[in-house]
Structure formats: structure tokens, C-alpha cells
Design brief:
- It is a single chain.
- By secondary structure, the protein is α/β, with parallel strands linked by helices.
- It has two domains: 153 residues, 3-Layer(aba) Sandwich (Rossmann fold); 189 residues, Rossmann fold.
- Helix content is 38%, strand content 18%.
- It is built from eleven helices and 16 strands.
- Helix 8 links the parallel strand 8 and strand 9.
- Helix 5 packs across helix 6.
- The radius of gyration is 20 Å and the shape is globular.
- InterPro entries: ABC-Purine-Binding, Peripla_BP_I, PnrA-like.
- This is Basic membrane lipoprotein.
- Keywords: Lipoprotein, Signal.
- It holds the Pfam family Bmp.
Length: 360
């Protein structure tokens, strides 16, 4: 679905970008945006939040119309959907999943006057931009909460796919957990799926059975929070405020605000200033953040979160500043050093405190 990079890809992206894309201003009422969604709008998570961003975008530009197709597989079907949008007059298309990347490139070559924005990829072109958010920052903050709330010092993590984006999130979450509670560990169970409520439920049960008294997640439905609620176990959601699924046990959730990007892109298109770029915004820009706290989160925990959030936003410190050790205890980031964005985006190792393997 989302972001998987190696440092080489940065150079590839620049090479693909080519010369500057020149466009004339397009009135909002003639843009007719198209959105390609990986899941159902009602998933309560990833796709739901993209659709909330779409609606926010529409409300900001009188006359702007948009449409979407949901549950589009990461394959040739996505190209057909984009082709249909173009034939129906779309001048801007947002593809919201990592696996659409090569299909975006192929369709964009055929329609050089259409703007394409791909979420979480690494390939750009004259008329293709990419966008994502520094969710690892919000993951870290949520880890602080989880670390303070566990009694067993065992936190479970329901993880989608073993790609750098998910690994980076687990590591950032664990960094927060260990900052708050150096004795705690994070156990990982892989789903090999973005959206599978049945698997998410079973993975949550397995983690609870193994001793986890707090659950976190990188999955797209509310199944994990719902299962945690039924078991009387605290949960940290993802994508959206998932307290509706766990009204008494939801602690907080790292959440997205996609509308910030969607409004910026449309503004640029209406002004004729759009150009291909790689957007990767975080807490400072408001693209990621935390949902409201559950009733059981103490004030001193909220204070800790705010202090760490201030450090990140100010630029004083970031989540992957050293020293950082990996699972074996080997220093991966020395004190006084920081992981580059390329290293963050290609992350394929776990930090100290994570219990689990990364499948090959």
C-alpha cells in the first residue's frame, strides 16, 4: 500500500523527474479530481481518512467536484480506473496506495497534461508528484503513552506487511515505549495484508494470549481495537480516532490529515504553479498527529507527550537521532548522529526492544 524506499531510489526519482512540467491554471470547476482507493471508504482507517481529506478539499474550493473508486487492487485494475477518470475529464488524479506506483507512471506517460499524485511511492515524472507523511513522529508519541500504560511490560503490535514503512513505524513506536518504560518490549505479529478484519482479530487475540496488555497496530480496520475492547486490554489505534471501536480501552491513535496535501495540490493547479515534488510532512505541518486521549491516560503522560512533541516540532530532536541500538544490541546510529531520510525510508531492521523477525 504505502512506502518502500532504498537510498538508490532517491537518485532514480530525480532522474525520472526530467524537465519542469509547465501547465496553465485550471479553474476548480474544471478539475474533476479522481481518487483511487485501496480499501472501502467505510474501513474506518486508511481509506476512510483519505476520503475525509477529499471532502475537506472539496469544501475548500467552490465548484470543485471529485469522485472515487474504492477497493481497487494494486494491479492492472488501477490503470483501468485511472484511464476511466481521464476519459471522464479528470485533470488531477490521486492514487492512494504504494502498489499503484508503476501503473501511475504508465498512465501518466499517455496523458502528459493530467496531474498525477501518488501516495507513498518513490517514482516521479514531469506530471507525477509523490506525497506521504512522517507518521513515525506520531508513532513515537503514541509509544510514550503505551509504555506508560502497560503493567506487564509486554505490548503487542499487529503489523500489515514487512516493508520499510511498517518497520519504521514499529521502530518509532518502540522508541517511544522504551523512552517511557525501558523495561517494556514490543511483540510483532505479521498479517501480510493491509485490510483483513479476520486476521487482525486473530493476531490481536494471539498477542493478548502471549501476555500483551496494550495493543498497537498498523492495519486498516477497527478489528484490533474492537478485539482489545472485548478482552479488556488497552489499545493504540491507527489512521483515525478508533475510540468508536474501543470506547473504554482506546488510549490514543497516530492519525492522518490528508486534506492538507489535497488542498495544496488543488490550489497550485488552479494557480498554474503545480510542479512535481516529493511531499513528506510531519507534526510541524499538521499532516500527522495524535487523536484525543482515552479517559484513563494520566495527566503526567499527556505532559510527557507534549514535551516530546515540542522537541520534534522545534527541530531540536527527531525520533531516529542516536544513539540507537538494533535488536542484537549493536549501535546502528551513533550519539550525535541522525538517520538520513533515505535510511529511514529503506529501514529493514528492528530497534532494541522489538520482539519478532522481519520476514524476507
Amino acid at each position: 500500500m504505502k512506502r518502500s524506499l532504498i537510498v538508490l531510489f532517491v537518485a532514480l526519482s530525480v532522474a525520472l523527474c526530467g524537465t519542469a512540467f509547465a501547465m496553465e491554471a485550471i479553474p476548480a470547476e474544471k478539475i474533476n479530481c479522481g481518487f483511487v482507493y485501496i480499501g472501502p471508504v467505510g474501513d474506518g482507517g486508511w481509506t476512510y481518512m483519505h476520503d475525509q481529506g477529499r471532502l475537506e478539499m472539496e469544501s475548500a474550493f467552490p465548484g470543485l467536484k471529485s469522485s472515487y473508486v474504492e477497493s481497487v487492487p494494486e494491479g492492472p485494475d488501477s490503470a483501468r480506473v485511472m484511464e476511466t477518470f481521464v476519459r471522464n475529464g479528470s485533470k488531477v488524479i490521486f492514487a492512494t496506495s504504494f502498489g499503484y506506483m508503476d501503473f501511475v507512471q504508465d498512465v501518466a506517460k499517455r496523458y502528459p497534461d493530467v496531474v498525477f499524485m501518488h501516495c507513498s511511492g518513490y517514482k516521479r515524472a514531469d506530471n507525477v508528484g509523490i506525497y506521504f507523511g512522517r507518521m513515525y513522529q506520531a508513532r513515537y508519541l503514541s509509544g510514550l503513552v503505551a509504555g506508560k500504560m502497560t503493567k506487564n511490560n509486554v505490548i503487542g503490535f499487529v503489523a500489515a506487511h514487512p516493508i520499510p514503512e511498517v518497520i519504521r513505524g514499529i521502530n518509532a513506536f518502540t522508541q517511544g515505549v522504551r523512552k517511557a518504560n525501558p523495561e517494556a518490549e514490543v511483540k510483532v505479529v505479521w498479517l501480510f495484508s493491509w485490510f483483513d478484519p479476520g486476521k487482525e482479530k486473530e493476531a490481536t487475540k494471539a498477542l493478548i494470549d502471549s501476555g500483551a496488555d496494550v495493543i498497537s497496530m498498523h492495519a486498516d480496520s477497527g478489528a484490533a481495537p474492537q478485539t482489545a475492547e472485548e478482552a479488556g486490554v488497552y489499545v493504540v489505534g491507527y489512521n483515525n480516532d478508533m475510540s468508536q471501536y474501543a470506547p473504554t480501552k482506546h488510549l490514543t491513535a497516530p492519525i492522518w490529515d490528508w486534506g492538507i496535501v489535497y488542498k495544496r495540490v488543488i490550489e497550485q493547479v488552479t494557480m498554474g504553479t503545480w510542479k512535481s515534488e516529493d511531499i513528506w510532512w510531519g507534526l510541524k505541518e499538521g499532516m500527522v498527529g495524535l487523536s484525543k486521549y482515552g479517559k484513563d491516560v494520566p495527566e503526567e503522560v499527556k505532559k510527557l507527550v507534549e514535551e516530546e512533541k515540542t522537541r520534534i516540532i522545534s527541530g531540536e530532536w527527531d525520533v531516529f537521532d542516536g544513539p540507537i541500538k538494533d535488536q542484537s544490541g549493536t549501535i546502528k546510529v551513533e550519539a550525535g548522529q541522525s538517520l538520513s531520510d533515505g535510511d529511514k525510508l529503506s529501514m529493514n531492521w528492528f530497534v532494541e526492544g522489538v520482539k519478532g523477525d522481519i520476514p524476507k
